[in-house]
Amino acid sequence: MGVAAVSPTNVWAIGSSSPGKATSTPLVEHFDGTSWTVQPAPGMAGRGRSLAGLASTSAEQLWTVGGSYAAGSTNSQTLTARYA
């Protein structure tokens, strides 16, 4: 869904993953110049989450935005998360 390249050794990507599931879960990855690693996604127990965009405000901070929703509900709430 989105990529933010802060530097050649600090790149972030967000999207979703749904291996073997009917619903997807957020996927956050970081590239350190050598390899990609999966990072923890924002946690909200009992709620579905989706990430739609990201922005870097400095070399030390990344913000993601998306939504969260209760299982079986079509009403969502805005979700923001900061990675420092």
What distinguishing features does this structure have?
65% strand, 0% helix
Describe the overall structure.
The model has no long low-confidence stretch (mean pLDDT 81). This protein has one domain (2-83). The chain is 0% helix and 65% strand. It is built from no helices and seven strands. The strands form two sheets. Strands 1-2-3-4 form a four-stranded antiparallel β-sheet, with no helix packed on it. Strands 5-6-7 form a three-stranded antiparallel β-sheet, with no helix packed on it. A hairpin with a 4-residue loop joins strand 3 (25-31) and strand 4. With 84 residues, the protein is mostly beta strands.
Q: How many helix segments?
A: 0
Assign a percent range to the helix content: under 10%
Tertiary shape: globular
Order of helices and strands: EEEEEEE
Average of per-residue pLDDT values: 81
- Contiguous low-pLDDT stretches (5 residues minimum) are none
| End-to-end Cα distance | 20 Å
Strand order of the largest sheet: 1-2-3-4
Task: Tell me the β content.
Answer: over 45%
- Taken together, the total number of domains comes to 1
Cα-based radius of gyration, to the nearest Å: 13 Å
- Count every beta strand, where a strand is a DSSP E run of 2 or more residues: 7
Structural class from helices and strands?
mainly beta
Which sheet architecture does the biggest sheet show? Answer: 4 strands, antiparallel
